[in-house]
Amino acid sequence: MAKPLESYSDLIVGERIFRVPKYQRNYSWEKKQWQDLWDDMTSAENPRPHFFGTIILRKVPEKERSEISSGHYDVCDIIDGQQRICTALIFLREICNQWKQICDLLPSGPEKESAIEDFQNFAKDYFKRQAIYKLELLNDDRDFFKSHIIEGQNFPDEKVTPSQKRLIGARKFFSEQLESEKTRKEGQFSEFLFDLRDRIRRMEILRYEVENTQDAVFLFETVNDRGKKLSNLEKTKSFLMHMIIQSASSTTNPEAIEIALNEINEKFSRIFRYLQDILENEKRARFIGEVGQDKEDAIQRYHFTFYESPEQPWEYLDGLRKKIRDQWKEDRENCPALILSYATDLEKAFFAMREIITYDENDSISTSLEQIFSLGRVANFFPLLVSYWMNAKDNNESIVGIEKILALIEKYVVRVYVVGRRRADAGNKKLHTLAYRIRHEKVEIDTVLDDLKQLINRYQDENTFKKNLEAENFAKRTGRRDIRYMLFEYEETLGIIAKEPLEHSLENILSEDFSVEHIWAQNSDELGLSEDVLKNVWPKCVERIGNLTIAANSWNSSMGNKPFVAKQEYYKDSSLRVQRELTKYSQWGKESIEERGKMLVDFVLQKWRI
User: Fold this and answer.
1) Which ranges of 362-400 would DSSP assign to H, the alpha helix?
2) For 251, which DSSP code?
3) Tally of CB atoms within 10 A around 253
4) C-alpha span between 250 and 263 (Å, rounded)
5) I want to staple 124 with a disulfide (CB 3.0 to 4.6 A). Which of 28, 129, 308, 519 is the partner?
6) How far apart are CA 603 and CA 176, in angstroms?
7) Kind and range of the H or E element at 133?
């Protein structure tokens, strides 16, 4: 039911608590939205209050209030408007922090007592009265919002979630803006602050109140509020709920519709929680999707690749809409079954992705995952990995086969992308089709492995692989980080042979603390080479694989251009075996580079043989 335009103050102040329902996502506004709100509130005077959009609420029945202590207050689920309500409260909280400072500076007396009373009453109306808070956010954000935003406690030292970072960011943004205005306006700041407070209080909203989830979905579909746009995942949830309602006939039990809608809500609630866990692992999550693409969009696309369309996964949202609408036209009554089937499968995909991204068991699977994430080019393989992982879980099977798949993925990346320098999408269609077959057909693990091997051979067979490793310009055509990765594997093998523990981890070697060293330096000024060697030999050898090793950055900066004889004394004390082993050479030149190059090429061929 729509009510006339009312103020933000009318909405917030009173016997009412606001709750974010569990099927919604966490706080998502960022600097652009904070800046828009700040600009709207501080722009030139307008003859009428700023319109803050539509707020959709659902009054929560008494039986659903168990998770919060509401006393005699009404509890309202925020169907649409959580980001705006929350951000405006954060804004007002920062205004109150400045307001309190103004009160503290007043001389003792009735004026100060009155100002403090006004401040305290305002805080009770907008933030908290006794033990009851005006706004209850989701999950871990609930207590975080109360303690660190409303109560003003220091931010915790431990790692916070992405949504909590955004809450912190909002608080800091408005705090910094107000501090800047305080400096700029000096004696007029109090007037500015209280005018700003009142502008926020007077913001106009259009409030809708609905009685059930069905009405909420209809309104959510049609209302187009400003702010951060809905993600495709949110659009998907809304579309599925809308089609559940559209599929109802005159004979359909209303309770059955509500049950189906609640089931969709529950599934997407879990999906958003899985997504949150994925995003918290920033080290691995950064490899999901293309640069600048939302991670949730990428995961939904990966899922659609093996759920429906390995040929056109980018059209996942339109493709899903078409599939469900076609089913609705053909068999309306069974359309909800298709919708729930898709939502169930999508939830399983997000769960599988969470397990892959957060996997940290002390086993060989964890080691293999760490290796392919270190190589970086893993996005193309996510549909395959997720599809296989889901099937193993569905059939209550061990995921031991995943280790063999991961080993081949590493070989694929090293051979095809790192050494072969193939395009980043090389093999995508075949990989997508294989992911689809894994999900829909009874594909044995040996078949999966054979298909991967054939694909690797198609792009980089043994002869081509060997030729590329032996190339004179190997170091120029291969990424420095990739070279360090391969040399680390050689370093590890040397340690196994010597029965010695590693002194450096892969993560350490791939960090900015280490670099690739050219043993015969790229800068020939200090090498003391003859004119003939400098002209005819050095250029053909300096970028070969045999002339490369790993060095600490500090060491490489000070010793990198010196001749081999000057470096040799330092190699023997190195913590890196790939440097220590160089002491077996009495001199360095074409013959030693070719000898060491053959050894390294043979190692690489054996290490990543298929």
Assistant:
1) 364-375, 382-394
2) T
3) 9
4) 21
5) 129
6) 57
7) strand 132-133
> Amino acid identity, residue 587?
Q
Tokens linked to 344: 């169930």
pLDDT digits (tens, 9 = 90+) for 346-383: 999 999 999 999 999 888 899 999 999 999 889 999 99
Phi, psi for residue 514 in degrees, rounded to 5: -125, 160
* Beta-strand relationship, 6-7 and 135-136: unpaired
Give the integer Cα–Cα distance in Å for 604 and 587: 24
- How many helices (H) and strands (E) would you count in the chain? 29, 10
Q: Are 456 and 408 in contact (CB under 8 A)?
A: yes
Is-contact 78 210, C-beta < 8 A? no
Residue 365 token pair: 């699977």
- For 58-101, write each residue's pLDDT tens digit: 888 876 665 555 567 889 999 889 999 999 999 999 999 999 99
d(CA 438, CA 136): 43
Whole-angstrom Cα Rg for the chain: 31
Give the end-to-end CA distance of the chain in Å, rounded to a whole number: 66
Token match 């809450």: residue? Answer: 167
For tokens 């004979």, name the residue.
251
